[in-house]
Amino acid sequence: MRGIIARKYVENLRSEEMEFLGMTTRKKTAEEERNDPIKKMQQQMNERKNIQEGNWRTYLTQKDQLKEEIDENQGVDIQEGMLKDRRDWITETKEKNNNKIPDDIKGFHDRFKVEDALSPEEEEAKAAAEAEGGGKKGKKEAKKEKGKKKKGKKGGGGDDGDAPIIKIGTSEIVQKFDEHYDAYNEIWVSRDETDNYKQQHDVELAKQEIMPILEEEYKKQVDDMINVELENMKLLYGGGGKKKKKGKKKGKKKGKKKKAKGLKLPGFKMIKDMIPEERLRDLIENNIVKKLPPQNLSDFIGEFNYIHSMLDDIRETPYDPSMALIRQLVTEYIIFPLGSELARNRILENVGSFLFYGPSGSGKTLIVRACVTETNSTLFDLSPYNIEGKYTQKKEEEKLIALVMCTAKEY
Is 159's pLDDT higher than 80? Predict the structure, then answer.
């Protein structure tokens, strides 16, 4: 027993001496273990990691929701803009190539990649350089064969004796660093994140990341639509000569039709056996009847221009209407008559059609959407770019007129 106690005493003395000399660390107490800074740091790192993972999951979920919102709210406008750009390109290409229709939409995407045309002198020089290059290649191959034969005799030397090619310029790694550096300067240098304690994602940055993906999807859909339109245009213009001859025959028979008892709707014979639901389905399938996103007339923001109305003389030159006046006229002459038969009968002027004109972005489409939403009406899109390539068979243009008239009367 004495030996055990003595050994324990000596061990304690030795440990105290080693601690005093700094050769071993002192054992921590329970309180020091709880307040260990290393453990606290590790705990904080784990907490931050969990917060980052939670924010990442939230970002992925809200990213999908944001994609759906952009597709629902802006998808139609983005596709219409893409269609307009491509149709303008088709028109310009037809003007340059004597009304020749492009084969496909590939030229639209390659129009900025086309190299400048070479002059005849430059083409001759290029052909001569290619010919010299071909001659040199033949000589080099002959020299290689000779070199191989000499190797068998001498047993030494290089393959063809050519000097190694030295690449000059920045490497790919340096270029990638430059790209990351530019992106950092563009997005993060002037960005203030002092209030973003939870390190949550930025909606605008998420939109910038989502928009290219959506635009790529829209581009494929729009390109398919344009290719179909181009094919239909080729078919339509291919039979143009025959349609002109038929037009002459119709002109000869016009005098006889005056003796008829009443006017008949053109093309009604082609749809007389169709029920109203079938007529409406036909127009919907051909995208003539559309369902536009809901819009309110109050979204057409603007005030009445009192100063302009006082300065201009209406009797000599009518002034441009203000936003408030356009809202008033649309309400009185379009929305009220379409929504109420009483209001329609009280209007003395027999107004049957309206023309909205103005630059792109002035609110023409917004007003049309608002009229459709406010009156719960059915919209028939008979614009040239929408009906182009549709109902191109024999007398189908008359069928389209009859379908629209009868469906509009029914619904």
Answer: no
pTM value? 0.37
What pLDDT digit, counting tens, does each position of 184-240 carry?
Answer: 888 778 877 777 777 777 888 888 888 888 888 888 888 888 888 888 877 776 533
State the Cα–Cα distance between residues 283 and 381, nearest whole angstrom.
Answer: 10
No. of helices (H) and no. of strands (E), the chain: 18, 2
Tokens of 237: 């213009």
CB neighbourhood size of 403 (10 A): 26
* Model pLDDT, residue 260: 40
Tell me the C-alpha to C-alpha distance, in Å, between residue 120 and each of 124, 125, 128: 6, 9, 12
Cα separation, 296 vs 341, in Å, equals: 22
- Kindly tell me the sign of the dihedral angle through the C-alpha atoms of 96, 102, 106, 109: positive
DSSP state of 290: E
Q: Are 345 and 336 in contact (CB under 8 A)?
A: no
For 211, phi then psi, to 5°, come to -55, -45
Residue appearing with tokens 């990442």 = 56
Beta bridge partners of 45: none
pLDDT for residue 255: 46
Average the pLDDT over 293-316 and give the result. Answer: 73
| Domain 268-410, architecture per CATH | 3-Layer(aba) Sandwich (3.40)
Q: Residue 289 in 3-state DSSP?
A: strand
Query: Taking the domains of the chain in order of start, what are their residue ranges?
Result: 35-101+201-238, 268-410
Distance CA 231, CA 104 (A): 9
User: Please, which pLDDT band fits residue 317 given cuts at 50, 70 and 90?
Assistant: low
Q: Calculate ∠ Cα 25-28-33, nearest 5°.
A: 135
HEC string of 152-196 equals HHHCCCCCCCCCCCCCCCCCHHHHHHHHHHHHHHHHCCCCCCCCC
Measuring CA to CA, which residue among 380, 363, 381 is closest to residue 296? Answer: 363
Distance CA 231, CA 101 (A): 9
Longest Cα separation, the chain:
142
Q: Cα 195–200–205 angle (5° rounding)?
A: 100
CA distance to 140, 172, 179, 202, 207, per residue, from 185 (Å):
50, 20, 10, 17, 19
Please say if the pLDDT value at position 26 is more than 80: no
